[in-house]
Amino acid sequence: MDTNVFYEDDLVKVTRTMFEAGSTQFPIRNISSVQVILESPSRKGPIICICVGVLLLAAVVGIFLIAAGVYWWTTQKNIYWIEVASGLGKSRAYSSPDQNTIRKIQSAINQALELH
């Protein structure tokens, strides 16, 4: 059992020898680098909804479509990914809308990499 745990929550664990994300395991010795990738949500749907609402503004339904489009737009969240690089290439290992959590995991993996 590895006693050097750098980060642990319900879904992710980073130890001196292993990065576990869900049911996937990445041996630290095989990881060459780790980075955070930002994936922004598609805004196409909310924009179409707002545009159709503007076209139908004469009807009451246009106001509801505009409101729905604005709500849809504002509730979309960025997704942050942990991407690990190894000899086999790059792999997106874990995602979360919480940037602080992703940064903590990245820092933990970097701490484990420093020991190898």
In short:
This protein has about 120 residues and is an alpha+beta fold.
Describe this structure in words.
With 116 residues, this protein is α+β, with helices and mostly antiparallel strands. It folds into 2 domains: 1-35 and 82-116, no CATH class; 42-76, no CATH class. Helix content is 38%, strand content 35%. It is built from 3 helices and 7 strands. The strands form 2 sheets. It has a 4-stranded antiparallel sheet with strand order 1-2-3-4, covered by helices on one side. A 3-stranded antiparallel sheet has the order 5-6-7, covered by helices on one side. α1 (44-55) packs antiparallel against α2 (60-75). The radius of gyration is 21 Å and the shape is elongated. The two termini are 18 Å apart. The relative contact order is 0.22. The mean pLDDT is 93.
List the keywords:
elongated, 35% strand, 3 helices, alpha+beta, 2 domains, 3-stranded antiparallel sheet, 116 residues, 4-stranded antiparallel sheet
> How many distinct beta strands?
7
**Low-confidence segments, ≥5 residues, pLDDT <50?**
none
Structural class of the secondary elements? alpha+beta
Global outline = elongated
Q: Approximately how much beta-strand content do the residues carry?
A: 35-45%
The helix tally amounts to 3
Distance between the termini: 18 Å
Strand order of the largest sheet: 1-2-3-4
Q: How much helicity do the residues have?
A: 25-40%
Rg computed from alpha carbons, rounded to a whole number of angstroms: 21 Å
